[in-house]
Design goal:
This protein has a single domain, classed as ABC transporter involved in vitamin B12 uptake, BtuC. β1 and β2 form a beta hairpin. The protein has 14 helices and 2 strands; from the N terminus they run ββαααααααααααααα. The protein is globular. The longest helix is centred in the first third of the chain and has 36 residues. It is mostly helical and about 350 residues long.
C-alpha cells in the first residue's frame, strides 16, 4: 500500500504528500468548521449550532441570519484567514532559517508592519482607517527587503537572517514605544489596541480585501515546497542540487512578508501563531515543508478561532484582544522551545 500521494500543480510544481498529511489536514478542516459553527452561535444572543448550520445553508430564521451573516461571519472568516496566513508565513520562515524558533514576529517582519501601522494611526489621524491595511502590508514588505539587504554578504545565510532580524525586531519595538509615548492619550489607546491584536469590528469588505491575497500567497508557497525542502538540507547541498539558493530565499521571504503584512493589516499584531502552528504541525507529520504547509494553515486558523472565542466569552460583555490569549499560550511554549533547543 502506497504511503504517498502524488500532487501535480500543472507544469509549475509536483510533490508527494504523505497520507498522514492528508489525514491531519482532513481532521484540521473538520475541527476548523466545527469551532467556526460553535463560534458563530456564541455572543450576547446565543444560537444553537443546528440553527447556525441552517443559516449557513440558507434555510435559517431571518433574525438568526442577520446576526450570523452580517455581524459574526466576517469575524470568523477573518480569524481563519489571519491564522492560516500567519501559520504559513511561520512555516516558510522556519524552513528558510532551519530553526523551530524562527517566525515573522520574532525576526522583525511583523515589527515593521507594526511601525508602519502605528505611525499611520498616530500621525495621520484624519485619514480614513481603510488605508491601514495597505500601510501595514507595505511596512512588512519594506522591513523584509531591509532584513535581506542587511543580511547580505556574498549571499544570505540563515544565521545572519536571525541575528539581523532580532535586531530589527528590537529596533521596531523601540520606535513603536517612542511613537506611543509622544502621542495624545486617545490615540495611544487606539494604537495599543491594534498592537495587542484584535479582529473586533471587521466587516465583509475586510474579508474580500484579504481573502484573494491569502489564497494566492498560500498557493504560491505550495508551488515552492520543493525549494524549501532543498534549503533544509543546507546551503552547500542545495547549491549542488542546482537550486538558485539566494533567489529562492528572497522570493520565499517576500511571500512570508506578504502573508504577514496581509494578516497584520486586519488582525493587528497577533503574536506567536506563526511560531506555534508550524511547530505543532511538524510534530504531527514530520519535517517536510510540503506536509507541514496545509496542516500548519489549519492549526493556525484553529488557534486564532479559539483565541477569538475565548476573548469574546471569557469576560463578557468585555472583549479582550485575541493577541492577549495567543501570547498567554505562546510565551510559555517559546520558553519551552528555548529550553528544548538549548544545546543546539
Amino acid at each position: 500500500m502506497k504511503e504517498f500521494v502524488n500532487v501535480r500543480l500543472g507544469r509549475f510544481a509536483s510533490f508527494q504528500l504523505h497520507k498522514k498529511t492528508l489525514l491531519f489536514s482532513a481532521i484540521g478542516l473538520l475541527l476548523t468548521l466545527l469551532v467556526a459553527i460553535i463560534s458563530l452561535g456564541m455572543g450576547e444572543m446565543k444560537i444553537a449550532p443546528l440553527d447556525v448550520l441552517k443559516v449557513v445553508l440558507g434555510i435559517g430564521a431571518e433574525d438568526n441570519a442577520l446576526i450570523v451573516q452580517q455581524f459574526r461571519m466576517p469575524r470568523i472568516i477573518i480569524a481563519i484567514l489571519v491564522g492560516a496566513a500567519l501559520a504559513v508565513a511561520g512555516a516558510i520562515m522556519q524552513g528558510i532559517v532551519r530553526n523551530p524558533l524562527a517566525s515573522p514576529d520574532i525576526l522583525g517582519v511583523a515589527g515593521g508592519a507594526s511601525v508602519a501601522a502605528v505611525s499611520f494611526l498616530l500621525l495621520f489621524e484624519t485619514v480614513s482607517i481603510k488605508w491601514l491595511p495597505p500601510v501595514a502590508f507595505l511596512g512588512a514588505t519594506l522591513t523584509t527587503i531591509l532584513l535581506y539587504a542587511l543580511a547580505w554578504k556574498k549571499g544570505v545565510t540563515p544565521l545572519r537572517l536571525v541575528m539581523i532580524g532580532v535586531g530589527i525586531k528590537i529596533a521596531a519595538g523601540a520606535v513603536v514605544t517612542m511613537l506611543i509615548i509622544f502621542s495624545p492619550f486617545l490615540l495611544q489607546n487606539k494604537a495599543l489596541l491594534w498592537l495587542s491584536g484584535s479582529i473586533y469590528g471587521v466587516e465583509w469588505n475586510d474579508v474580500w480585501m484579504i481573502m484573494p491575497w491569502v489564497l494566492i500567497l498560500i498557493l504560491a508557497a505550495a508551488v515552492l515546497t520543493r525549494r524549501v525542502n532543498i534549503q533544509q538540507l543546507g546551503d552547500d547541498v542545495a547549491t549542488s542540487l542546482g537550486s538558485f539558493l539566494q533567489w529562492d530565499r528572497f522570493l520565499l521571504l517576500m511571500i512570508c512578508a506578504a502573508l504577514t503584512g496581509t494578516a497584520v493589516s486586519v488582525g493587528g499584531d497577533i503574536s506567536f501563531v506563526a511560531l506555534l502552528a508550524p511547530h505543532i504541525a511538524k510534530q504531527l507529520i514530520g519535517p517536510s515543508f510540503g506536509g507541514a504547509l496545509p496542516v500548519s494553515a489549519f492549526i493556525g486558523a484553529l488557534i486564532v478561532l479559539l483565541a477569538d472565542l475565548v476573548a469574546r466569552m471569557a469576560f463578557s460583555p468585555i472583549e479582550v484582544p485575541v493577541g492577549v490569549f495567543t501570547s498567554a499560550v505562546g510565551a510559555p511554549f517559546f520558553i519551552f522551545l528555548l529550553y528544548k533547543n538549548r544545546n543546539r
